[in-house]
Amino acid sequence: MRAWKFCLRLSLVIWLGIVAEQHAAKAGGAATSPLPEAIEADVSARNVSVQADFTGTEIVVFGTVENSRQPSAEAGTYDIIIVVEGTSIPHVVRRKSNLGGLWMNTASVRFASLPSYYAIASTRPIQDIAEPPILTQNQIGFEHVRMVKSGSGRTQITDAEDLAEFRDAVVRLKKRDGLYIQSDYAVAFVGRSLFRTTIKVPPNVPIGVLNAKVYLFREGMLLGEYKSEVTLARAGIERFLYDVAYRHGLLYSLGVVFFAVAAGLASAFAFRRE
Amino acid sequence: MYVYLPIAELPVQVPLFLALGCMVGFLSGLFGVGGGFLLTPLMIFLGIPPAVAVGTSAAHIVATSVSGAVTQYRRNNVDLKMGGVMLAGGAIGTVIGVEAVRLLRKAGLFDVTVSLTYVIFLGVVGTLMLIESINTWRHAQSTGGKKRKKSGQHSFIDGLPLKMRFQRSKLYMSAIPPAIIGMFVGFMAAIMGVGGGFFIIPAMIYLLRMPTAVVVGTSLFQILFVAVLATILQAVQNKSVDIILAALLITGGVVGAQIGAMSARKFKGEELRGLLAALVLMVALRVAYDLVVTPTELFNFGPLQVSK
User: Fold this and answer.
1) Global ipTM
2) How would you write B148-167 as a 3-class SS string?
3) What is the pLDDT of residues A82-110, one digit of tens each?
4) Distance of CA B116 to the CA centre of its chain
5) Do the Cβ atoms of B283 and B37 come closer than 8 Å?
6) pTM of the predicted protein model
7) Which chain A residues are Cβ-neighbours of B65 within 8 angstroms?
8) Residue B172 belongs to what H/E stretch?
9) A59 - beta bridge partners?
10) Which residue from A35, A208, B53, B291 has the least number of CB within 10 angstroms?
11) What CATH code would you report for A37-233?
12) How far A106 CA lies from chain B's nearest CA (Å)?
């Protein structure tokens, strides 16, 4: 009975102590103007080597909110958006229409640059995090991916509505190929200031530099951003073959022909005795 | 088991592509065609970028046609003289074809031209071969003998100059028709990205009236050189030949080609032609279907070739 009372009293004391501390913290925060929040982030691997056994990879993006005022990991004071973009490659997008009963490409738009890969992860849906102008300005989200229309070409589309249709088609086709990925709620805080997410890099990603950008928001305001990059590079036999193919095209082609002829002859002679 | 392709920039399943190479090699050995008209669409279907699929199938055709041509040569079934005349025409046709491809691309009409040529040529050739093989088969069933060709059918061809003796084919005829056929095949090969076997075989049988035994070997001989040229051009100009992918397809292909060549002996000529005709017609119908039926996705895209 006495022990039970003691326990109750002890827990009351502890509880009061916590409440008092929280009060003190709030009061202190109000008195001296709070330090502005900033963001620091990094990626788990700066270099990824693409070798014969490459079947895609995963990049962990993590970081911290400096001077976090968030009371807990679940409080949701801050929003994080992480965008990882692949190298820009010129693309041509074609649209079919029916001409005399046959479906053929009748219109095309050339893009001088559009990201070959675009992954976006956030603490919640991006339209809930910030207003469209901010997202547009920072090229956050599929509707705001930077696509530069090329000036050249004959069958060019100039109508804005038409152009939007081509843009949507790019996003749709890239999503189908697994190269444009969006995951809401994928970024999670693991403490008052520490957050992390895992970005999936599919095996068909074009090789080059991936630019990672991390944005910190509070109540729709962009407080800070941080950049990092991951370099995907061929290594070993992949690198050797690629270099030979691009630098010594004739030698490479003769190598392929030699291999093909040798294999053909070998099999013809191997089966001869049967 | 996956392996990463350095040029195509994606990993592929090793057993799947060995099997694909073997299957196409089998058909190649069986019918004496390169099999490009099957291999290229199948590779694209399996996710290989179209440019790499076209370039790499040329390398596969080199291997299977060497394998088949050597086997046929040993059986004395290759008419080198006829093949040489056709190749001379083929080289000219390829050059014209490459230029035509450039002009069609410029006009944005390339895709539809390829589809239409596939439908028209595969359709016409397939139908004619099917009818002929069924007739021959029926005739053989009823009389038990081989259909004799009528004499005096060569009135027009017989009048042409530059007559040559093609001993292996037991023909004495002008070099112009085989050269023109070769030229046409070279032209088609450049446009369609195939060796042209499905076209050259019926042309040799029905237009040149070469003995069936010599046709398969001679066409493989011609296809071999067209494919070597195509492989080199594709690798040097377009960087679109993937050596790892080629190695997978070839390894499966040469085995398949030998099995095909052995199986071919178990069939009669008209039966083989009938089967090839059915296969050719199937591909033609598939392409026609895509051309006519409303596609679910109207858009398509690809990387833009930056000319250096």
Assistant:
1) 0.83
2) CCCCCCCHHHHCCCCEEEEC
3) 999 999 888 888 888 888 888 888 888 88
4) 17
5) yes
6) 0.79
7) 264
8) strand B171-174
9) A199
10) A35
11) 2.60.40.1930
12) 8
